[in-house]
Q: What sequence folds into this?
């Protein structure tokens, strides 16, 4: 035993050194990757803008990230999904081409990402406050860039904020773009649930069927919702090529815009936003409540989307009246064409929006 103790001590020291060394190497690798991202995507044009800022919106500090080669270009505001799922960590993944033609604004909504703070009360994480924040940010951007109107792209939860904003305040927008468009939440969850059950049945996946049998939409808890979403990801109803969650995590970890504290709190902030605001979505039925919008509307639909099922998007589109409307299909995408087909996503935005920017 006396001979074994020194060996065990040396082994333990070696293990600790390996762990610490791995962490150090990981941190250094992240820092190098972040530095390369900054260098490779730095905007250096004479009239360009590249700015990570905190602005007062709705009485609290909220983070915006502005990127554009010409600050006199039209402003395009991207309103992220969730609730609580910022797109800022992936800004470079689906915006570099857009930045040559627009001032692209990424916004971490209250309670999420860089805008997560103990100073923000949970009871303010509700639909009407988010809508008020959206309107206030739009006006801030209009005034700052001296433009009467801006473009708004709403993704998933952001499409709820976007479509209602377009309905209530068309005078502030050139156009509205809905992607992963929420339509009718009750039918949304029923169709999404049936999709994973049908796939699991065809796959003879007993584990999936057993777990899914324990829940039923509308879900009584966040845990039930996430269980269904986990199987939705497994069966490629959110990202056609899979790995959506992993891609998101990688984006957060490598994001130069987030410090260590924000990276570590990202998930808990996202889940808290979801807990607080999800109930506000349960009564959403835009087929009944949004029949006309007084701005051009572009709907970007992933052909394989079963997070916000594409068949409901078709129904909403057919019944919607607008000065101009287009339904654009992304055949190789599910819920996030901006991340699944980023090249085409940017090209379509440029082709459709620039001609109506005046």
A:
């Amino acid at each position: 035993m006396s001979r074994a103790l020194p060996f065990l001590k040396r082994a333990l020291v070696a293990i600790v050194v390996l762990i610490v060394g791995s962490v150090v190497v990981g941190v250094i690798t992240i820092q190098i990757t972040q530095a390369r991202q900054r260098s490779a995507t730095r905007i250096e044009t004479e009239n360009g803008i590249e700015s990570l800022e905190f602005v007062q919106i709705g009485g609290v500090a909220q983070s915006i990230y502005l990127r554009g080669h010409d600050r006199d270009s039209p402003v395009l505001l991207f309103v992220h999904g969730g609730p609580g799922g910022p797109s800022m960590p992936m800004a470079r993944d689906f915006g570099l081409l857009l930045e040559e033609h627009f001032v692209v604004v990424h916004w971490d909504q209250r309670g999420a990402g860089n805008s997560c703070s103990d100073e923000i009360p949970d009871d303010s994480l509700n639909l009407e406050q988010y809508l008020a924040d959206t309107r206030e940010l739009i006006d801030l951007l209009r005034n700052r860039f001296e433009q009467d109107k801006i473009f708004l792209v709403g993704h998933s939860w952001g499409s709820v904020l976007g479509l209602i904003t377009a309905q209530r305040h068309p005078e502030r927008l050139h156009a509205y773009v809905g992607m992963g468009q929420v339509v009718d939440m009750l039918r949304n969850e029923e169709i999404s649930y049936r999709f994973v059950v049908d796939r699991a049945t065809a796959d003879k996946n007993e584990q999936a069927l057993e777990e899914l049998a324990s829940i039923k939409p509308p879900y009584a808890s966040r845990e039930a919702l996430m269980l269904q979403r986990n199987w939705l990801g497994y069966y490629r109803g959110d990202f056609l090529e899979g790995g959506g969650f992993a891609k998101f995590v990688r984006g957060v970890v490598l994001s130069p815009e987030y410090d260590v504290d924000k990276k570590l709190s990202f998930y808990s902030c996202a889940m808290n936003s979801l807990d607080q605001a999800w109930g506000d979505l349960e009564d959403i039925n835009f087929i009944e409540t949004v029949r006309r919008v007084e701005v051009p509307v572009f709907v970007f639909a992933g052909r394989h989307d079963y997070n916000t099922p594409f068949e409901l998007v078709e129904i909403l589109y057919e019944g919607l009246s607008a000065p101009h409307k287009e339904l654009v299909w992304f055949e190789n995408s599910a819920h996030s064409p901006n991340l699944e087909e980023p090249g085409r996503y940017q090209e379509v935005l440029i082709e459709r929006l620039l001609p109506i920017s005046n």
